[in-house]
Design brief:
10 strands, 321 residues, two-stranded antiparallel ribbon, TIM Barrel, eight-stranded parallel beta barrel
Length: 321
């Protein structure tokens, strides 16, 4: 079943479903910790699980002669394989991320063909991050600069069209396409208005639902939805939430995700900054309060960014689902 259909069923029944995101294990690690976390979250009946994709990074090592050896590595490989293993083991729909960064159009096509063969028919189409040390995103010479072009390629494959111009009149893929939305504006956007226009282009190109970047102020989400509807974006918009877990995240999260930390949350965390358990509890309670308000507003799914940790997500799920 497509995630789009699951969302529509939740809307029709006026219910709110639970969903969460996972990181692939670091290279060399097994699936044990990952499946342990999933096992603990399955009782809350997730509508779907997303699996992040991490592009290559530059690794440096000093040789004995003092010179620097540089090579490119993938620290968290295996997104498609892990997504397939989760789907087979748990019977839940899985949404692997697919990014532009580091990939040619042919690479993307090959990944989509693998996903189709494995029964993974949901995908989250993203531009991805800049390469290590580069100030701005630089696409593969035969790839894409923007997620909208990735959406167009996936939609074309659904029509049986391939990057080499061939058209398959037999088997067609049937990917349900999600894209990212930014309630507080993408870090590279020139303005909130232009950011929304780029989002509309992705929807017009074939995106069926939107999962937002994390936010801590529901007013920003509600305003974002209103602005989307005003320019003709009618697809479901799923709020993405992350419980704040450490005092350091007061600085790190705004820097990385360009999100605002509300003054009330910041003050409370700062007052207990030396007590890690208290900070984690404050962040969890804030996310529960956010979630309750969003449920009352009728959102069909609440999507949680676990960052590889299940404990605080479990406490939220216990309170809400």
């Amino acid at each position: 079943m497509s995630v789009t259909q699951l969302i529509r069923e939740a809307e029709a029944s006026h219910t709110t479903r639970f969903a969460f995101e996972l990181l692939p294990p670091l290279k060399g690690a097994g699936m044990e910790e990952l499946t342990t976390n999933i096992d603990r979250l399955m009782p809350y009946d997730p509508a779907y699980i997303t699996v992040t994709y991490h592009r290559e990074v530059l690794k440096e090592r000093q040789r004995a002669d003092g010179t620097i050896e540089r090579h490119v590595v993938r620290r968290r490989p295996g997104t498609v394989g892990i997504a397939s293993a989760i789907r087979q083991r748990y019977g839940v729909e899985v949404v692997p991320h697919l990014i532009c960064g580091g990939h040619s159009r042919a690479d993307i096509e090959d990944a989509l063909i693998d996903m189709d063969f494995l029964g993974l028919h949901n995908v989250l189409a993203l531009r991805g991050d800049a390469f290590t040390g580069e100030p701005t995103f630089r696409p593969h010479p035969e790839g894409y600069s923007h997620a909208v072009d990735l959406v167009r390629q996936i939609a074309a494959m659904n029509r049986g069209e391939f990057v080499d111009g061939e058209v398959d009149e037999g088997h067609h893929t049937n990917f349900s396409i999600a894209v990212a939305g930014y309630p507080e504006m993408h870090g590279d956007a020139l303005s909130a208005e232009s950011d929304l226009q780029f989002l509309k282009e992705k929807v017009d190109a074939g995106a069926e639902y939107i999962i937002t970047q994390l936010f801590f102020d529901n007013a920003k989400f509600f305003d974002f939805v209103a602005r989307c509807r005003a320019i003709g974006i009618t697809v479901p918009i799923i709020p993405g939430l992350k419980p704040l877990a450490t005092a350091r995240q007061l600085t790190i999260l705004p820097e990385i995700f360009h999100c605002h930390i509300p003054d009330a949350l910041r003050r409370e965390v700062e007052q207990h900054a030396t007590d890690k358990r208290a900070v984690r509890q404050i962040g969890t309670e804030w996310a529960i309060a956010q979630s309750r308000e969003l449920k009352d507003a009728g959102v069909p799914v609440l999507h949680y960014y676990s960052m590889g940790k299940a404990d605080n997500i479990i406490r939220i799920a216990e309170a809400l689902f």
